[in-house]
Amino acid sequence: MTAGMLNSIHSPADVHALSSSQLVDLCAEIRTTLLEYGRKHGGHIGSNLGVVELTVALHHVFDSPHDRFIFDVSHQSYVHKMLTGRAAAYTDPERFGSVTGFTNPCESEHDSFVLGHTGTSISLACGLAKARDMQVSASGRSGIGNVIAVIGDGALSSAIAFEGLNNAAEQGGNLIIIVNDNEMSIAEDFGGMYGSLSALRQSGGTAASNPFRAFGLDYRYVEQGNNVHTLVETLREVRDIDHPIVVHVHTVKGLGFDEAPGDAENGSDGCNQTNAEPHAGQCEANHWRNPDSVSDGMPDARKYYGAMAMASLESRFANEPGLVVISPATPGSNGITRDFRERAGSHYVDTGIAEEHAAAFAAGIAKAGGRPVLATSATFFQRTFDQLQQELSLNRVPATLLIFGAGISGTDNTHSGAFDIAMFANVPNLTCLAPTSGEQMLDMLAWATGPSEHGAVAIRMPGEQILELERAADVAFDPIERAEGHEPVVPAVDRAGDCPFKRYQILRPGRDVAVLGLGNTVALASHVVDRLSGGDTDDDSIGMPVPPVTATLIAAPQYSSLDEEMLSMLADGHRIVVTLEDGQLEGGWGEKITAFYANSRDAKANAVHVLNFGAIKEFTDRVPRERLNERYGLTADQVISRIRMAY
Amino acid sequence: MTAGMLNSIHSPADVHALSSSQLVDLCAEIRTTLLEYGRKHGGHIGSNLGVVELTVALHHVFDSPHDRFIFDVSHQSYVHKMLTGRAAAYTDPERFGSVTGFTNPCESEHDSFVLGHTGTSISLACGLAKARDMQVSASGRSGIGNVIAVIGDGALSSAIAFEGLNNAAEQGGNLIIIVNDNEMSIAEDFGGMYGSLSALRQSGGTAASNPFRAFGLDYRYVEQGNNVHTLVETLREVRDIDHPIVVHVHTVKGLGFDEAPGDAENGSDGCNQTNAEPHAGQCEANHWRNPDSVSDGMPDARKYYGAMAMASLESRFANEPGLVVISPATPGSNGITRDFRERAGSHYVDTGIAEEHAAAFAAGIAKAGGRPVLATSATFFQRTFDQLQQELSLNRVPATLLIFGAGISGTDNTHSGAFDIAMFANVPNLTCLAPTSGEQMLDMLAWATGPSEHGAVAIRMPGEQILELERAADVAFDPIERAEGHEPVVPAVDRAGDCPFKRYQILRPGRDVAVLGLGNTVALASHVVDRLSGGDTDDDSIGMPVPPVTATLIAAPQYSSLDEEMLSMLADGHRIVVTLEDGQLEGGWGEKITAFYANSRDAKANAVHVLNFGAIKEFTDRVPRERLNERYGLTADQVISRIRMAY
After folding, report:
1. Do A120 and B590 touch (CB under 8 A)?
2. Of A224, B3, B13, B460, which has the fewest CB atoms closer than 10 Å, so is most exposed?
3. What is the predicted ipTM?
4. Does the B5-250 domain belong in CATH 3.40.930.10?
């Protein structure tokens, strides 16, 4: 356990009481603590290192929770947590992981919201301030004092942040927007606004072209954003201000990181290296740090299949001018490496954190005859829902969407991948594909980005389950070599315009019971069918040996329409149809199959008993995937037991 | 039919050939045509009157479709349509309605996209320009020349427009963004940016605080935005420009409207009046014009129930400082009248067209103890999907969402209300209510905005079906009186925290068949049950007299969870359960009931035969509701016939 001042900080009151020199000491100790925590536990260390002084100054000057801080995305709230009674979670290795990586009101009264998506802090702050002002008007008092949003320059590129800026001035009243400008997003900053920010930095905040003043906001610039005294002084001046103001603070992301010995070698994926110079193409370096213990060099499924997909596309760049990969600011985690981006040149566009623009931009490229490929997380696609409906699907443009991080997982509650099937599958005109192998993913990508006539296509990138299978089968060698060695095959279609991946595939024929696995769940489906045909002798729910069942194993490679022909055929000879999906049941895929059989005009189909397995409708927070699968009945034991009961 | 020059304009080539004086004559004729069309047919007349000269100048200077125009929202594309071979749709009353109110590539090669939602034009234009530039790099040529986005100042407040502006400069290359500044949104403009626009207008474009330059964009100002010669000159200067530029054009929305005799009296809902002065609180005046023939003074369901809801809330404003109605720019069509807004004072906030901000803003107010009520169209809530998941539902804040325009309807394909159930119902923690009467809506609103502990609540405002029923029953008198005369009743709950509207209601007990109607479909459910109990003697599908069935009639007032107790009870004594919903089946409500019975561990429940009725997954364009209901089997005849077949 790190000893020192942090142990004596139990609440913001303890920060208020510190002398000037103690503030400096505290910052130093926090920085050391963050570095050590990063090495041992990992996390968003770079952004937190950049706001050590800012956060200490905020808690020294303001009075939380009466004054409210809203940290945008809240990945940079570690220091805030240390100062609000949660220091042990960063100093005591046994308590690492006992707090989330984001703010959460369940943890502390000093956290107003659970946040993990970008750009909403200003709007949320406007809401808190509005309610405060109405309370004060009505009764002369409110439980809320100053309202302070802290937002990074990278987050400023996101749509809702602009809407917030535009509405803040209109609203009036006390509202302090701290723009933490560290000259970086997750990858490099992208957007014309960054020229203005740069001019403001260079002119000490006096440049004429000021995007904040253009939104009608008051403005102050602080060059020494890592000097706690300067910050304290500035914040004292704006405290209790009677109108909205932007305080533009220039900080250094990852400050102190390069001083720690051994860091330069840390990590092999380019995400843990550091560099004293910002903007040297090293931004992701500071974004997320893996703990030292993670050094097996094995990419996760996102990076692995992302790299395969990029390698497959790259081979076509020279001959296909319209083939463009678009990433809204998170390339690295999806296998879109810096090397790839440099080689891709104009075939790669980072839009900054701007998913909505990215989706409509893709629609524009596709309409002009190009073949855009938009890659981001399942959870971030939520931002594009309207563009998904309107610009992409209603307009039937051949854009390809690569959905990363989809499926049930142990993520925190703001980044769940369990909701995407219900979001994508119910949009008309949109083809949703769920590959069950790396090669099938490449085949789908080739079709989606190829010359045939079709609308937008979403590809749910294979998850860890598939990668585990492929590693076990020794086919998951280097993703680039693997992509280069595979000549994509697009299955033939009956009619032009049909999706070549519409048909489900019978992997093993049987009778009585059919087990249908969608995408990632094919592995589980296969286990279930194996175990059923072996005969289960240890099934406690039955209590006696049970005879083997030669079940039919089926892979469903898509979830936007039903293979009605196959489903009707199954009704002949199968009493039970089981659907497995790696996402929320409600609104998802299995329910459609259940409804198909119920609404069929064929009595045999009506008689089919469908059992659906998938996630229940809930937010989950850092619950390991295995435990969620247990909870949802998505284990071979539980599926078999249900089948036996219904049999 | 209006005679004149328009008859000789068959394509943009005919506009190129016009002399200066002919351009002026053409503008005058178009303006007269629009006014006459507005009186007879209705439409977005104000915005089109404002861009007559701009559109004529665009087609005179540029060469469509080689040069591409993207009209934001595209409600202002009537003039463009007149100049691209579709004039007869505006001059010949027999062909009124033969084109959509928005651009559509199916109509003309001069329309690039189907558009109806705000703010996407810049992103789409970036995409077209990007593909063009890559084609030119590769082969020296492209089918696309200049790319021109035309966006109104009202649309500029929307999130994605900012993202587009921020990305345009970064991209570089030819891109012309025409900001049509008529000093109005749908209602008044809201946002700090509008101060900057005003300063630019007043300074002839020279003001230092320039939001476009702040985004790194080149900029030009045109004060005489309704002078076709000035516009032609300016556009010639920017044609073939090698970098993105904003051309800020000052126009008068509705120019010429006030000159037409009799207009001042037109319409009784405040939406058809006009005023020569913009910004005199008359903005909606110019937004949408009903044809003269619509003068029965009967409000539609949106306006009617919206007015009821507002009246009910207004009575509480004096005592509840945190009760705030939020409207993202479309108050009038949802019964939030100008009078109400003025009386509401700080209890009403118009965020401009900024749905995402509005949703996060509501989350902030709710977190601070307030009770925000966010009102907008089902289709516009699509923009808030991520905030719906994260800021509102994950954070479990007591915000109320009023969903207007939900349900199957004859709208164009960009404003469908058939998709909202699948969007809202599958979000965890969100309570979704579907009132079946005006009074129930008020009760739900009272609970949602009341003191009890709950998360976000969406209320699907009653549709035309309910209003027709209530008018027939003579209870739909003046909405304000009706609201004032109703003391809201919140049903008791078993446990604190339960939703008092969770339970389905048995309206008429029966057996064998249960017909469940969700919200708006209760009227149809009631018809079906009536007809079944009468015995159908004319059922062609059976071909013989059929015996009466005393079916059970059930109203479902919510669609975010199942009343499992009721559903289980129904399994005893009912062989068939019918679900009716006024929206898309896939991902919707009925499928959940089907899945409930299939996955039950009770054999009786498994044996229930569920029949689901609702919309199929498709985009529809101006197909009357009656025809859609026929297509979806949502008529009493068809539902009865299916029940008889399954019986």
Report:
1. no
2. B3
3. 0.93
4. no
